[in-house]
Amino acid sequence: MNDFVPALLKEMERRSDYLGADTIETVYFGGGTPSLLDPADLNAILDKIRELFDLRPDAEITLEANPDDLTDRQRLIAWRIAGINRLSIGIQSFFDDDLRWMNRAHDAAQAADAIRLARDQGLDNISIDLIYGGPTLSDDHWQRNVETAIRLQIPHLSCYALTVEPRTALDQLIRQHKRADVNSDDQARQLLLLMDWMSHSGYDHYEISNFALPGHRSRHNSSYWQGRPYLGLGPSAHSFDGESRQWNISNNARYVSILANEELPVADREVLTGIQQLNEYIMVSLRTMDGLDFHHIKNRFGEQSAQEIIKKIGRYVLEGKAVMMEDRVFLTSQGKLLADRITADLFMA
Predict the structure, then answer these.
(1) Fewest CB within 10 A of the end CB: N or C in the chain?
(2) Apex CA 270: angle with CA 51 and CA 8, to 5°?
(3) Is the Cα torsion angle 84, 86, 92, 94 positive or negative in sign?
């Protein structure tokens, strides 16, 4: 067991009361490369969770992994025995040209093999990430990527427009004209195509970037979108108790040393005002198929707030970017292309 895991277990012990007596319905190993953990370490973490928290017998327990991590049959078996019952695999594309452009470590063959190997070991509850809007991805290749996922009956897809982070190696290559840049019009068109294909294939478009066959929505991510409290453990992890948010330091070595000194590695804490909580609800709810609930806003934030938002959303309804149904508003396909802009316009000051 490396130094990190005992530190993580210690943080878990010291923060075991953060969620009160709430039953734990989901566990998510992500935000890095948790699949590189030794299976014995993963087992120790899950055992400690079961010891300290009221973990539901049918809890959704997800592990993020890259295709090149999913080559060892025995490791997959050990994950399943430990309690992992859902995999989130960073496929990105089933075409080598796209993967090379994104500097991914795996190739298209490994992407397909990872899905097959996981299923062979009984890990059928799979989510995959796909990326659209890259300069190497034609509409035809994008369709074939999506059709591959549908043909394989992948129960959950997370699909994201390609973004280039500033000061990364890829950003530098683009600035040096050694790689083509992304095109926002291509991204918008491919998102519209995606929504149409998934709808005709029986997938619920339950959040702007997420599609699921019935019964396979991500329970963990849905809890974020519903504003439910959560506990984050490890470097850079964020936690939310319903009214305040706190986050850990990002440096691994400092994280371990602080816990060795019997202190908590919290970097900062923010208490959310009523306006901030309302704006977060607007931002998250408009991204989901459940939409923005004016009845909820009236009850929690007051009648005046609800009326102001109704007035602001009116222009988008007239433009066909949103629809009102009873006490809820939903973004249309065209509105989803402008979700960030519409959300910002609805924010309360």
Answers:
(1) C
(2) 30
(3) positive
Structure tokens at 82: 């430990």
Give the residue-averaged pLDDT of 19-34: 92
CA 130 to each of CA 99, 109, 144, 277, 319: distance values in angstroms, whole numbers, following the listed order:
11, 15, 12, 31, 30
Distance (Å, rounded) from C-alpha 214 to C-alpha 205?
Answer: 10
CB atoms within 10 A of CB 172: 13
**Which single residue is written with the structure tokens 């899905």?**
115
- The strand ranges marked E within the chain are 24-29, 55-65, 86-92, 126-132, 156-161, 204-207, 210-212, 238-240, 244-248, 266-271, 292-293, 322-325, 328-331
Query: Is 298 exposed, middle or buried (CB count within 10 Å of its CB: 0-12, 13-18, 19+)?
Result: middle
| Separation CA 66–CA 35 (nearest Å) | 8
Query: Which H helix or E strand runs over 119?
Result: helix 108-120
Interior angle at CA 92, CA 90 and CA 98, nearest 5: 145
Give the residue-averaged pLDDT of 142-160.
97
DSSP states of 198-235 as a string? HHHTT-EEEETTEEE-TT-S-HHHHHHHTT--B---ST
In one letter, which amino acid is 262?
E
The answer to whether 306 and 298 have CB atoms below 8 angstroms apart is yes
| Average pLDDT for 55-68 | 96
- Of 79, 15, 74, the closest CA to residue 46 belongs to 79
> For position 103, what pLDDT does the model report?
83
**Helices and strands (H, E) in the chain, number of each type:** 15, 13
CA distance linking residue 214 with residue 203, whole number of Å: 7
Stated as kind and residue range, the H or E segment containing 118 is helix 108-120
| Helices (H), ranges, 251-302 | 252-260, 274-285, 294-301
Q: Would you call 198 exposed, middle or buried from its count of C-beta atoms within 10 A (0-12, 13-18, 19+)?
A: buried
pTM of the model: 0.94
